[in-house]
Design a protein that fits this description.
heterodimer, A: 111 residues, mainly beta, 5-stranded antiparallel β-sheet, B: 112 residues, 7-stranded mixed β-sheet, 4-stranded antiparallel β-sheet, 0% helix
Chain lengths: 111, 112
């Protein structure tokens, strides 16, 4: 299976702190994506990193990809209450393949 | 531009009943997906489609059938509902298999 596994399963931090979530996967990938899900809602795409990229930024988000370790990390800097959500990594191993999601990290931001 | 729309949003079924969930997208995407999400868990892929007239099995296809007769619509059917199919169902679409996926708001299904 190419499913990603997120670590930790749950994370609680103080507002203003940085949050780091990790994703490990099993097979070689074409790209890796991160999504956010607010409680009871659909998933929203955050960022996509291709297999030939090592780091990507988008606003307060920083994603790294280490294909040798088959792992990725999502860093959210200067966290805000609105960042409270579940975060999922998703992998696809070719341009013609399906998208498979991991089990997610539940992030809680304490005021 | 509505994006991805799922119908219905909520449904309660009795064991053994059948129903169809409808997903519609207006972005001319080739790929469409049906996922289920159980409490505290990630999304598991049920079935997906890589284009009009095609369907393929995902991780948990048993008990479900799908059809993609029109490019913009992807239907998920439960022929004989079971309590184990109580879940939140999400439809998604993407331009290709390795591009950003857009999600519907979900269908909360309870089988009693």
């Amino acid at each position: 299976s190419q499913q990603g596994e997120e670590d930790p399963q749950a994370l609680s931090i103080q507002e203003g702190e940085n949050a780091t979530m990790n994703c490990s996967y099993k097979t070689s990938i074409n790209n890796l994506q991160w999504y956010r899900q607010n409680s009871g809602r659909g998933l929203v795409h955050l960022i996509l990193i291709r297999s030939n990229e090592r780091e990507k930024h988008s606003g307060r988000l920083r994603v790294t990809l280490d294909t040798s370790k088959k792992s990725s990390s999502l860093l959210i800097t200067a966290s805000r209450a609105a960042d409270t959500a579940s975060y999922f990594c998703a992998t696809s191993y070719s341009s013609a393949s399906k998208i498979i999601f991991g089990s997610g990290t539940r992030l809680s931001i304490r005021p | 531009n509505a994006g991805v729309t799922q119908t219905p949003k909520f449904r309660v079924l009795k064991t053994g009943q059948s129903m169809t969930l409808l997903c519609a997208q207006d972005m001319n995407h080739e790929y469409m997906y049906w996922y289920r999400q159980d409490p505290g868990m990630g999304l598991r892929l049920i079935h997906y489609s890589v284009g009009e007239g095609t369907t393929a099995k995902g991780e948990v296809p048993d008990g479900y059938n799908v059809s993609r007769l029109k490019k913009q619509n992807f239907l998920l059917g439960l022929e004989s509902a079971a309590p184990s199919q109580t879940s939140v169902y999400f439809c998604a679409s993407s331009l290709w298999g390795n591009t950003e996926a857009f999600f519907g708001q979900g269908t909360r299904l309870t089988v009693v």
